[in-house]
Structure formats: C-alpha cells, structure tokens
Design goal:
659 residues; four-stranded antiparallel sheet; five-stranded antiparallel sheet
Length: 659
C-alpha cells in the first residue's frame, strides 16, 4: 500500500512510441545537436508596446524550466521600423497591440513552470500549449481517481447490498478485491514507472472486472451452508464448485489483457501488463485470502442476514424468450453497418483540446481568435549547402499552411557566410552537422489536413536531401503514432479473439459454442464502437483500442455464466425449458455484474477531465450495458437456434433426448 506512492507516473504519450519511430529518432538527434527544443507553449500578452514585449520576454526567460523563447526580434531586426518588415511575419508575433511568444517548457517541470507563468501573466493574458495540457492532466489525474473511487465504492456497495442477503457480505467482496488492487498498485515499484492512463483506469477496472470472482465463491458458500453443517466443509465444496467458473472467467480476461502487451505503442503494453498482474492477484486473493477471511468471520454473515431487497421477477426467462426472434432480426440488421461504422470512425491520437469552460480552454480560444492556429514543426537538414537550403525554404514558404519560418537563409540571408558571424548569432540555426528550419504552421496538431501536410513537408524535404533529414513537432509525432496504433489494432484484436476462443474451446470442449459466444460479445463491441461514427463524434484512438479488447475480455464472462448453466440443464430437459430455467436463475447474477462494470465506466466518464480516460469510461459503461442486452436476448436465441449443431459439435454433450 505504501509502495504505490513511490511509483512515478508518466504523462507524456510520446515516451511510449517505439525508439525507432522517425519522430523519436529526430527528437534524439535534435537534443544531441541543439541546446533548444521545439516550442510547446504560447503566451499572449495584451495591449503591450514592442519595448514592453521585449521586457516581458526577458522575465519569461528567467523562469525555471522555460527555454527557447521566440518572438518578433528572432524573426526580424526590430531596430528598423516594423512597418518596413514583411507584414505576415510581423502579424505572426505582434498584432493590434497583442504580443504572442512561443517557448519550450522542460519535460517533468510542467506543473511548477506553468504555475509560475500564470503568476507572471495574471488573469487577463492567455497561456496555451502541449506543456499546459500535460500539467492539467497531471493535476487532475490523482484527484479525479480519488473522486471517481469516492463515488464508485458507495455505488458498488449499494448494488451488492441489493443483490445479497447479508449486510456484511459486500465488505468481504470489496476487501478481497481491494487488497489485490493495493498489492497490484504497490508492485508497480518493480516496473518503476506507469502511464497516467494506467494510473487512472487500471485500479478501477481491476475492481470491476474481478469482483465477480468473489461473488461466485461466496454465493456458492451460501448455498452449501444450507446443505452442510460444518462451515469449513461448506467452503471446501464451494471452492471446488466455483473454481472452474472463476478460472474460466479469469482466463478470458487474463488472455484478453495479455493481447494488449503485444502493442508496439507501449501505452497499451503498460496498461495490459498492469491488468494482467491485477487479474492474477485478484484470482489468488479470491481463492486463498477470501476463504480464510470468510471462515474467520462467517458468524458476522449469519448475524447480519436480511431479506432480499430486490423483488424477483417471476418467469423472467419466459417473458424474455418471447423476444428471441425480434432480437435475432435486429442484431442481424445492425451487425454489418456496426462493423463497417466502427472501422470508419474519426479518431483523435493526442489528448484532445481542453474544455472551453476551463481557464486552459478559454485561453486557447482567445489566442486562436487573435493569431489563428499554431503548430510548430522543425526540420533538420545537412549543414553546408546554403543555396539548396534557400531553395527548400522558398518552396516551403509558398505553402498556404506555413505562416512564417525562421532559418538562416531567410533571417540573416545567404549574402553573409555564417563563418563571418559570432557563434551566438548562428547557434540557433546551425549545429555541428545540421541546419535548422523552424516552420510556424496554421494546421491543427492532428487530422486529415495536418497529416497530409506532414507527408507533403517530408516529401518536399526528401526531394532535396533524400533520407538524410529529420522532422520534429507534435503533428509529426501524432502522425507516427497514428501509423503505429493502426497496425497494433489488427494484431491486438486478432490475438484477443484467438486467445478467448481457445479458453472457451477448453472450457466447453465444443467447436460451435466459442463461435456463438464470441459472435454475441463481438457484436456488442462493434455496436458500441460504431456509435461515435453514426453520431459524428471523433473518438480518442487509445480509448477505442483498449476498449475493443477490454469489453470483449470483461463481458464474455456473462456469456460463459449463462451458457455453462444452460449446458448442464440441457442434459436433463429440452432446450426451451432448459433456457427458461437458466435465465430465471442467472439473469440476476449477470445483471449485478453488468451494472457494476457499467457504473465504473459511466463514473469514469463523468468524473474525468482527461479525454482519454473519459473516452474509455463512456465506451466501457455503454459496452457493459450492450453486452448485458446481447447476452439476455441474442445469446439465448442463438443457443436455441443452433441447439442441434451445438449437440453434435460438443464433446460428451449428453443432451436430453426425451419427449
């Protein structure tokens, strides 16, 4: 429990790109060759003269963590009247008495440095940029996780109280899983560092996904207490009976999460490793710690018995089975557009914009209204051939997305050889091996236009220098991220489906049942992920990638629970009767599990200001509800429809043959 506070949290998604990614290599080269880094922040000072702006620039440079402050004096000689300078260049930095500065905030110092900048500029001026987004995420993740847990735990306790017959049982459930969550978070000390997504999502997801294991065991223990006098014998029988169901449930989730660790984009691997570790610890806790805890305090369960608070619905199976034909028709109509829709969604690869009702969001809007969008890009090209560099700069300058540029050839000019000038005048343009060109562009950091522009700039530079150049910038990084995670998607989804299919094959010893179960849950996943496409809402890609695995791995348990019971009853009665009895018995347990997972998702969505975490929450909440609907309406219809096929393709099915 104490070790978790020593685990450092990484808020920079760029660190999770593979080391051989072009933008990562380019960043390494620039850090070796130049002292400065790419600007990741902007400040707009209102109603200032040029002299006041120059004084402010010095104050900004003096803040710890701030470097590479760029303003008008870096682009033109401000000793001459600015009316004589290029108006477009001037208006990139100084317009209607407002001055716009771009600068770099050191990685790891985002929170304290942005606070210091806010103190300097006051309420009336504006700050924006990637570093500020990181600082906001950093401040919010810790408090929001606590806030989400503070809402979530009472909600889970309420659901468990309504679904059990003892006031103290929910405490046992939460203690068993809570202990494993704390151990999981503490063992991250051996990993050294986790991502902010893992910090926000993993503990809550582990709790929601593995609470079922504890519920299976204690429900089984309660059943045997009514048959056996000795509590220890009852627990032994309960452990023996519930072990296959818990093992199957844990295995599907375990192997589903292992698929995430195969992602090249290491954010998925970071979360996957954490969840795999969490599932394993939850399984051990439920099979070792919970029985010991229960046997020590089972008298508390006896003393705190109460009537079932939720009324049971008589003949619920009979009523729901009347909907089996409409359910089949609706799903068959939806499945193709849902599959196509989820693959056509517009994705966001970064963390997205800050909400406009926050200081950070309103500042971004103010700066963009005055100076337009701004995404810096840096090109490093081989040093030495000024004529070639000048030709490239002219061609890049003709692009409509390029607002202004800073390079030796357009700031100082080719007429003066660099060796005639002092190093202090040329160090921002040249290193030992490279010449640096800074482009101030008007594209977004991501999107079709931004990514097409990255491709165009790379192609134009390659026409002059072949592969011997480097491009750095947020849009370049997100372009690389897009290419990596799109490849990851195919691999992860395929691995998840194969792994879960194998677990289902071993569990049911059947060829057809894994297909029916996977079709049921995968259809729920496709419908869930197609909603953003049909509502024209862009979706954070990391959320999409994680949830397509998590929803399948976490909700296939509902299908296992229903199918396992149906298969056993089918040995004693005809298909329709077996399904009716199964649904009467199991719909309550499945409903409890789905309502907990759905609550977790929607609470994460409501409480998180981070777009990635909120997106995972919304998809999880909606996905759990859809999976529940599919398991109680579509799955029974499929099992009844293919009853004969299932019988013939299941080893030792022993289905009832009587009239």
């Amino acid at each position: 429990m104490f070790a978790q506070f020593t685990v450092s949290v990484n808020y920079d998604m760029v660190d999770y790109l593979p080391e051989d990614t072009p933008s990562t290599t380019a960043m390494d080269v620039m850090e070796e060759e130049f002292d400065g880094a790419v600007a990741n922040s902007r400040v707009m000072m209102k109603d200032v003269t040029i002299q006041e702006a120059m004084e402010f620039k010095e104050e900004l440079e003096a803040i710890d963590g701030v470097s590479e402050v760029m303003w008008l004096d870096d682009a033109i000689d401000i000793k001459t009247p600015i009316e004589m300078a290029d108006s477009e260049t001037v208006e990139s930095y100084y317009k209607d008495g407002n001055a716009l500065f771009s600068f770099h905030i050191e990685e790891g110092k985002e929170v304290e440095t942005t606070d210091a900048v806010y103190n300097l500029i006051g309420e009336e001026n504006a700050l924006s940029g990637e570093a500020l987004n990181t600082a906001v995420s950093q401040k919010m993740t810790g408090t929001e996780t606590i806030y989400a847990a503070a809402i979530l735990i009472p909600v889970i306790i309420l659901i468990l109280i309504l679904s059990t017959r003892s006031w103290v049982e929910p405490v046992f459930f939460l203690t068993a899983i809570g202990v494993s969550v704390l151990i999981n978070m503490g063992t991250n000390i051996f990993i050294g560092e986790i991502s902010f997504v893992t910090q926000a999502v993993a503990p809550i997801l582990q709790l929601a996904v593995s609470l079922d294991y504890a519920i299976f065991l204690l429900h089984s223990f309660g059943d045997y207490r009514r048959k056996v006098a000795d509590p220890q014998e009852a627990m032994q029988l309960a452990m023996k009976r519930s072990f296959p169901a818990i093992a199957a449930s844990a295995s599907t989730t375990f192997f589903g999460f292992i698929a995430l660790t195969f992602m090249n984009f290491e954010l998925g691997a970071d979360l996957g490793l954490n969840l795999v570790k969490g599932i394993l610890l939850s399984f051990i806790s439920v099979m070792v710690f919970l029985p010991a805890l229960t046997l020590m305090f089972y008298k508390w369960i006896d003393k705190t018995q109460h009537k079932q608070l939720l009324p049971s619905i008589p003949n619920v199976g009979k009523h729901l089975l009347k909907l089996r034909i409409p359910a089949l028709i609706v799903v068959l109509i939806l499945i193709v557009p849902a599959f196509l829709g989820q693959s056509q969604t517009d994705f966001l690869y970064g963390t997205g914009d800050q909400p406009e009702n926050t200081r950070a969001g309103s500042d971004v809007a103010e700066i963009e209204e005055e100076f337009g969008k701004y995404t810096p890009m840096v090109l490093l090209v081989p040093k030495g051939d000024l004529a070639k560099e000048e030709e490239l700069v002219q061609e890049l300058g003709d692009l409509e997305q390029v607002q202004s540029m800073i390079s030796y050839v357009n700031t100082v000019g080719t007429a003066i050889p660099p060796e005639y000038l002092e190093e202090s005048q040329t160090e921002q343009f040249f290193s030992e091996n490279y010449s640096r060109i800074i482009l101030n562009t008007t594209t977004d950091t991501e999107g079709d236009e931004a990514f097409a522009f990255v491709e165009l700039v790379r192609q134009m530079t390659a026409d002059f220098y072949g592969d011997d150049y480097h491009a750095v910038g947020e849009s370049v990084t997100l372009y690389d991220m897009k290419n990596i995670v799109e490849r990851d998607n195919t691999v992860v989804n395929l691995l998840t489906v194969i792994a879960i299919a194998l677990v289902l094959f071993v569990t049911f010893r059947s060829i057809s049942l894994p297909v029916v179960l996977l079709l049921t849950i995968q259809s729920a996943v496709w419908i869930n992920l197609s909603v953003p496409y049909f509502t024209d809402t862009p979706l954070v890609y990391i959320g999409y990638l994680i949830i397509s695995t998590v929803q399948l791995a976490a909700t296939v348990d509902y299908a296992i629970l229903l199918t396992e019971d149906y298969k056993e009853r089918r040995k004693e009665m005809r298909a329709f009767e077996a399904m009716k009895k199964t649904m009467d018995e199991k719909i309550f347990s499945i409903g409890v599990s789905a309502s907990i997972l759905s609550s977790v998702g929607f609470i994460l969505w409501i409480t998180s200001s981070n777009p990635i975490v909120a997106s995972i929450g919304l998809l999880l909440g909606r996905g759990a509800l859809l999976a529940f609907i599919m398991v109680v309406l579509f799955l029974p219809a499929m099992l009844l429809l293919f009853d004969k096929v299932i019988e013939k393709t299941t080893w030792k099915s022993n289905f009832y043959k009587g009239e």
